[in-house]
Write a structure and sequence with these properties.
44% helix, globular, five-stranded parallel sheet, 229 residues, alpha/beta, Rossmann fold
Length: 229
């Protein structure tokens, strides 16, 4: 009987699976869709115990060895293009800050400040309107200026932000440009993606992070890993 060569070859790619005497038949029968992990080089499965994680917890390629932070497949799929933007802009414009944090005025002393402080404690260089922009500046202008001085942007989506978005007249074209450039990550806090979709379908089209799934502390850790180049 043919023996699987995974212990020595790893089966990290479709080619490895196809060359395995035990697995090649299954691979050719089902195709790459039958071996989703072969065609997804951005993460690997990790087995954990005692931390509430399951054996299917995922690690993206940019996660450092020994990191305890785990991601869902959807998060990795959404964040991978952002990571590529981070890497490219780090080479092109090394003087930029890591992220800018876009938030509603009502969150400036609460959720936004907490996230800002957690990010800075994790070593992330943050462009924050409370420090870097005058009061009363329209949100899209803040986004433009923040992105010009940062590699990527975070949009903290809260009930206050949902109330503000329609008043800011954020055009789908503007959001489409930013999202297509893989420069924005929505972070949903104390609300839902469904509520965001009702206000801004374009922004809700990009899956980001959600404090209903991860604590604010874990969200900050994931952002810190994402921008560490």
């Amino acid at each position: 009987m043919a023996r699987c060569t995974a212990p020595s070859r790893g089966h990290r790619s479709a080619a490895a699976a196809a060359n395995c005497p035990a697995c090649s038949g299954r691979y050719s029968r089902y195709g790459s869709s039958g071996y989703s992990s072969y065609s997804t080089p951005y993460y690997s499965s990790s087995s954990t115990s005692g931390s509430g994680m399951t054996s299917s917890s995922k690690k993206p390629s940019w996660s450092k060895s020994g990191s305890s932070v785990s991601y869902t497949s959807a998060q990795i799929q959404s964040l991978t293009p952002i990571r590529k933007t981070v890497e490219a802009r780090a080479v092109q414009q090394p003087e930029l800050r890591d992220v800018f944090l876009c938030h509603a005025w009502g969150d400036r002393k609460d959720a936004a400040k907490k996230l800002h402080d957690l990010l800075e404690a994790a070593g992330v260089k943050v462009w924050f309107s409370e420090k870097d922009l005058g009061l009363g500046v329209p949100m899209m202008r803040a986004i433009d200026k923040g992105l010009a001085n940062s590699r990527i942007g975070l949009v903290l989506v809260t009930p206050a932000m949902l109330e503000r978005l329609p008043k800011e007249s954020v055009a789908d074209k503007e959001l489409s440009t930013l999202l297509a450039g893989n420069q924005l990550i929505p972070i949903v806090h104390n609300t839902t993606y469904e509520a965001l979709r009702n206000v801004s379908p374009m922004l809700a089209s990009r899956t980001g992070l959600d404090t209903a799934e991860d604590s604010m502390e874990v969200v900050a850790e994931k952002i810190a890993e994402l921008v560490d180049v």
